[in-house]
């Protein structure tokens, strides 16, 4: 097991010899037990890296060792506390609120899915906490890095790796 370390206070992410700037949630960081849907906080904890979602035509999948798949039209992630599929991938459109994974910006060209609040999900304790590409501003609670840094890091990650925030 290898560890991606996030120093939320310093805005740095490291993995082995790699060290890079990162951004976190607009609400700063918070204890995982205090995380609430929509608070903008990045939850502190040890999060298993579950897999990767990639936007076809925007990134290459060559060399990726984690489980991965292309994001498709209609892919979403439930963020509605009333949804039985809360904090799970869903198909859009749907009756409940969900984050669209094919975004107009480039932030979700690479989505590393983290195991925050997923075993099992507790409604309201935070959803869609990902590791993704930076858009030059704080996230809604995720950890984000620049594209070049993500593309250097991604082939180094393997099943069993974790992210510590």
TrEMBL record:
Q: Where is the active site?
A: 132 (proton donor/acceptor), 142 (nucleophile)
Which GO terms fall under molecular function for this chain's record? transferase activity
Return the InterPro entries for the record: LD_TPept_cat_dom (IPR005490)
Q: Where does this protein act, in terms of pathway?
A: Cell wall biogenesis; peptidoglycan biosynthesis
GO BP annotation list = cell wall organization; peptidoglycan biosynthetic process; regulation of cell shape
* Keyword vocabulary terms for this entry: Cell shape, Cell wall biogenesis/degradation, Peptidoglycan synthesis
Report if keyword NADP is assigned.
no
Q: Which Pfam families does the UniProt entry name for this protein?
A: YkuD (PF03734)
Domain L,D-TPase catalytic residues, every copy: 1-165
What this protein is called in its record is L,D-TPase catalytic domain-containing protein
Q: What organism does the record attribute this protein to?
A: Sphingobium indicum (strain DSM 16413 / CCM 7287 / MTCC 6362 / UT26 / NBRC 101211 / UT26S) (Sphingobium japonicum)
């Amino acid at each position: 097991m290898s560890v991606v370390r996030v120093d939320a206070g310093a805005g740095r992410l490291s993995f082995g010899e790699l060290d890079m700037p990162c951004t976190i949630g607009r609400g700063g960081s918070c204890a995982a037990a205090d995380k609430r849907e929509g608070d903008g906080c990045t939850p502190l904890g040890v999060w298993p890296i579950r897999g990767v979602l990639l936007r076809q035509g925007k990134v290459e999948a060559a060399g990726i060792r984690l489980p991965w798949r292309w994001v498709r039209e209609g892919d979403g992630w439930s963020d509605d506390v009333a949804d039985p599929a809360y904090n799970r991938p869903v198909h859009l459109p749907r009756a409940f609120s969900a984050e669209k994974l094919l975004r107009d910006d480039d932030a979700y060209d690479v989505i590393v899915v983290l195991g925050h609040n997923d075993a099992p999900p507790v409604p309201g304790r935070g959803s869609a906490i990902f590791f993704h590409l930076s858009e030059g501003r704080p996230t809604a609670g995720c950890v984000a890095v620049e594209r070049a840094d993500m593309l250097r890091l991604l082939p180094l990650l393997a099943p069993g790796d974790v992210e510590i925030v």
